[in-house]
Structure formats: structure tokens, C-alpha cells
């Protein structure tokens, strides 16, 4: 049987903005999002490049390393995830890695050129004691002069604050898919339950992601973007 996944996976992310973004948040209508998706592909790429160059150095990338600090045993039934207890994938559940294990992995990542170290844990929603342990891991990574990011599941406001005060730079929060398709991918939570914590992530300078598919109708992509952009 395979053991817990603790190997490093290297990914590329753009560097932090070359100049600060505006603090105000622009709220897009469904119509404006639909108009964007309806642009010809070359025009859409051109618009994306313009926005990118306003906020990022276009000729630099950042090397990040991802480590699974707590693998398997997740009670959620996300249809794409091998760490769910609902599927027989051969992934064995493991306990949270200790500080020295994570520090060794971060040092190895740094030696290989990474400047950001990301830590993922297979939880639906961590307990306070779990977040306290992760906060210690964040402080350890930050002490090495690296950026730190995490993905741990749904957080309470106090937990988000705890991670922020530990020095966490980014929090990855997967919204999975558009609201209309949510039940096709996961049934152990609903979309609103996931979205309810969105304002906390925004306040803590965090970011979100989704499992996008080219098979979706444009309306589904539209709904996903709108749900993360509209006031809650």
C-alpha cells in the first residue's frame, strides 16, 4: 500500500506585484463577466496581459514548493480527490508532520530555488489545536526567509487571524466549481457553506481557486467568477 504523500511538488507562480494594487474592490455584474468570456481568445489574452503587466513583473516567475503536511483521511467526498475516505485510492492517512520534518523539506526546497513554501492538509475544517500547530510550522518557514502559504480547509475567523499573525502570506481556498454544478462534485457540504468564509479570506489577504473545466458551459464559469466577486 502506498504511504502518506509527503513528497514535494514544484510549481510556478508569478511574483508578487511590482506595484501595489488598488485597495478598492470592483464588483462585476454577471453581464460584464459574460462579455469578458465572450471575447475572441486573442483579445482575451491581450486583456489578461495588460492586467498582468499592471501588477506583476512580466519577465519573472516565482518557484514554489508544495508539501502535504497531513495526508489522507479527509471526511469530504470531493470527486477529484484521492485523499477522501469515501474512495479506495490506496492513500493511507497520516498524522500532521512535525516541525523538524517540515523544516527539512523547506530547506531542501529553498536549496532547489523555491522562495515560497506551501503546506496542504487533508481536513474539512481544522480544530483550533491543529491551527496552532500549523502556525508554528508557518513561523518556522518564515524564519528561513521564505514566503509561506497553506490550504487546510474551512477556517473560523479566529483561526484565519491566528494564521495571519503567524506570518502566513497566502491561503489557498478551493471553491471547487460553480454553484449550479456543486452537487455533481461534492455532497458533504454545500456551496454557501464554503463561500460563507470568503470575506475572512479576503480580509486576511488570501486567495481562492476552483476546479475549472473546459466542458462547462460559459454560464458556469460566469457564475463561479460572479460568486467570488459579489458582496456576501
The end-to-end distance, rounded to whole angstroms, is 44 Å
Largest sheet: 6 strands, mixed
Residues in helix, %: 25-40%
Q: How many whole angstroms does the radius of gyration measure?
A: 18 Å
Q: Going across the major beta sheet, what is the strand order?
A: 1-2-3-4-5-6
**Number of helical runs?**
9
Q: What form results from the Cα inertia axes?
A: globular
**CATH T-level fold name of the domain at 8-13 and 32-175:** TIM Barrel
List low-pLDDT spans.
1-23, 208-215
Second rung of CATH, namely the architecture of the domain at 8-13 and 32-175: Alpha-Beta Barrel
Briefly note the structural class of the backbone.
Answer: alpha/beta
Quick overview of this protein structure:
The protein has helices at 30-37, 41-55, 99-111, 128-143, 157-165, 182-185, 191-195, 198-203, 218-229, and strands spanning 8-14, 61-70, 116-121, 147-151, 170-174, 207-209. The chain has nine helices and six strands; from the N terminus they run E-H-H-E-H-E-H-E-H-E-H-H-H-E-H.
Write up this protein.
- With 232 residues, the chain is α/β, with parallel strands linked by helices.
- It has a domain at 8-13 and 32-175: Aldolase class I (TIM Barrel, Alpha-Beta Barrel).
- Helices cover 38% and strands 16% of the residues.
- It has helices at residues 30-37, 41-55, 99-111, 128-143, 157-165, 182-185, 191-195, 198-203, 218-229, and strands at 8-14, 61-70, 116-121, 147-151, 170-174, 207-209.
- Strand 4, helix 5 (157-165) and strand 5 (170-174) form a beta-alpha-beta unit.
- The longest helix has 16 residues, at 128-143.
